Amino acid sequence: MTAFELIRAFAHDATVGIVVTDPMIEPPGPIIRYANAAFGRLVGRELDDIIGLSPRFMQGKQTRRETLDAFHRALATGERFHGYLANYRGDGTKYRAEIDCRPLRAANGGIENFVSFEREVLRRLGRPAPSGAGRYEPVSVSNDVLTGVLAVLGVFKHT
Fold it and tell me: pLDDT per residue over 2-28, tens digit each?
């Protein structure tokens, strides 16, 4: 079983948005090969309309070029990207997304796909929390089984 097949098997009912793309990062890629229902709700689109698109469809006038460039550099070098982007839903409303994107490697070390875990966050008011939670907090918190697995993997935490 490939990592892609494993993700498809466990991610369907997860409450965090999960997207798997092909490894081609130059336009028109990467192309979305899988997205779970939580991602569809996050971006306000039907899954059938998302598969086959580039994640660039979520970008808009307030999506920061500097962050997109950092994201591109990380993927181009096969590194993890963790950051925040202003994205846009299908109806045009802006939201802030926390994104943790990682390469999925084949047995030979080559990148087969990228997997991205995404959730909506809100900017904290005042000083960052001493707990290390930082400037943003999740819009919703989940107690599903996958949440524990993602915590073990360090998803949504800087490495």
Answer: 777 878 888 888 889 999 999 999 999
Q: Where are the domains of the chain?
A: 3-153
Q: Looking at the structure, give the CATH architecture of the domain made up of residues 3-153.
A: 2-Layer Sandwich (3.30)
Assign 3-class secondary structure to the chain.
CCHHHHHHHHHCCCCCEEEEECCCCCCCCCCEEEECHHHHHHHCCCHHHHCCCCHHHHCCCCCCHHHHHHHHHHHHCCCCEEEEEEEECCCCCEEEEEEEEEEEECCCCCEEEEEEEEEEEEECCCCCECCCCECEEECCCCCCHHHHHHHHHCCCCCC
Instruction: Give the contacts of 127 (CB within 8 A, at least 6 positions apart).
Output: none
pTM greater than 0.70 (yes/no): yes
